[in-house]
């Protein structure tokens, strides 16, 4: 039996030249995707934007907003071809590290009730539900609520 080397992964800051690949993953992943322009605006606003590359190709990304002792996960995604391999967990852990490095004590995010896989990932990392935002997301038949989740970050770690 021939041993197959695991794919090489790299986590790095998102660059302008990543935007087409990021937007393509976004479009392949969501019915109501962010546009390439929204990702460009996040870079311009200096939000921490990260990509996870596998064998040199962008396989996932995350966008964070940090300020006033809080962080907000604005977008996190692993492309359809890369799901189920622990990459989402790896990416989200990096975003939590970035939040901590920037002085955040608490992290917030929204997730669709119709996305139980993401909810399970967030819960497994310690997030818990604190409320709902009615009619937050666009949906095929109108609007969908958002589950608001939070995580307290340990300090000094």
Model description:
With 157 residues, the protein is an alpha+beta fold. It has one domain (9-152): 3-Layer(aba) Sandwich (Aminopeptidase), CATH 3.40.630.30. Helices cover 28% and strands 38% of the residues. It is built from four helices and seven strands. The chain has helices at residues 19-29, 36-44, 87-101, 116-124; strands at 9-13, 49-54, 57-67, 70-78, 106-111, 128-139, 142-152. A seven-stranded mixed β-sheet has the order 1-2-3-4-5-7-6, sandwiched between helices. The relative contact order is 0.14. The model has no long low-confidence stretch (mean pLDDT 93).
Could you describe the largest sheet, including whether it forms a barrel? 7 strands, mixed
The CATH class designation is Alpha Beta
Helix content: 25-40%
Provide the β-strand percentage band. 35-45%
- Distance between the terminal alpha carbons, to the nearest Å? 43 Å
- Class by SSE composition: alpha+beta
Tally the beta strands. 7
CATH superfamily: Gcn5-related N-acetyltransferase (GNAT)
Report low-confidence residues grouped into runs of 5 or more.
none
- Round the mean pLDDT to the nearest integer and report it: 93
- In CATH, the topology is named Aminopeptidase
Following the backbone from N to C, one meets helices and strands in this order, namely: EHHEEEHEHEE
Shape: globular
Q: Mind telling me which CATH architecture this is?
A: 3-Layer(aba) Sandwich
Number of helices: 4
Q: How many structural units, i.e. domains?
A: 1
Strand order of the largest sheet: 1-2-3-4-5-7-6
Q: What Rg is obtained from the alpha carbons, in whole angstroms?
A: 16 Å
